[in-house]
Structure to design on (215 residues):
């Protein structure tokens, strides 16, 4: 009837017919992210454009994995005979554990699937690693990079190498097809910000004497 045809649409239908600018922008960003990630995943498989570089990318992947960093830090703690060194290493261990927990929580909440071109042959994974956002390797690389630059006295070439390593770890995640571009970018930002939390909660012999007594 004419009266029913002239009736205004429900608010929900109006929103569907007239999506917000923010919704359009987010959808466009997601489409660009997926397209760029697919194009940059040149080492996602042996038959990919740069498939011959995949073994090197996987070595870089291991260099940013949590287990080598955790084991290396714990070993350093046991071998260290300096209170200052133990303080730095204990806080690095705290930072690494905090990073693992935070990334696992965010991945579990967001639950973004890994790119479809990813090959699940990663070094030591857990259940939450089936999710993609954010990149744990990227958060760890940014966190460790900032930590090392602030607490170790290094020559300029070594400082540059540390920064390059963090960036290469992030880039390798996209090249291997493990993550989308936004997973890595947000991971780097999250790791960079996480260091500020570690600095704020810095563990010292004066603040936590019982903890240092364990070592």
């Amino acid at each position: 009837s004419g009266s029913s045809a002239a009736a205004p649409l429900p608010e929900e239908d109006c929103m569907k017919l007239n999506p917000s600018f923010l919704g359009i922008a987010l959808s466009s960003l997601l489409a660009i992210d997926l397209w760029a990630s697919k194009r940059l995943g040149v080492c996602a498989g042996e038959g990919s454009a740069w498939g011959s570089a995949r073994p090197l990318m996987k070595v870089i992947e291991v260099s940013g994995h949590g287990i080598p960093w955790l084991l290396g830090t714990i070993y350093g703690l046991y071998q260290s005979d300096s209170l200052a060194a133990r303080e730095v290493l204990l806080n690095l261990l705290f930072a690494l554990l905090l990073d693992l927990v935070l990334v696992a929580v965010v991945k579990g909440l967001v639950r973004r699937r890994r790119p479809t071109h990813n090959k699940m042959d990663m070094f030591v994974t857990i259940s939450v690693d089936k999710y993609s956002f954010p990149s744990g390797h990227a958060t760890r690389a940014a966190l460790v990079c900032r930590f090392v630059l602030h607490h170790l006295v290094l020559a300029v070439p070594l400082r540059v190498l540390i920064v390059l390593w963090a960036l290469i770890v992030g880039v390798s995640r996209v090249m291997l097809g493990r993550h989308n571009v936004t997973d890595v970018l947000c991971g780097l930002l999250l790791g960079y910000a996480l260091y500020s939390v570690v600095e704020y909660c810095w563990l010292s012999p004066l603040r936590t004497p019982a903890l240092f007594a364990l070592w």
Summary: Residues 11-15 have pLDDT under 50 and may be disordered. The radius of gyration is 22 Å. The chain has ten helices and no strands.
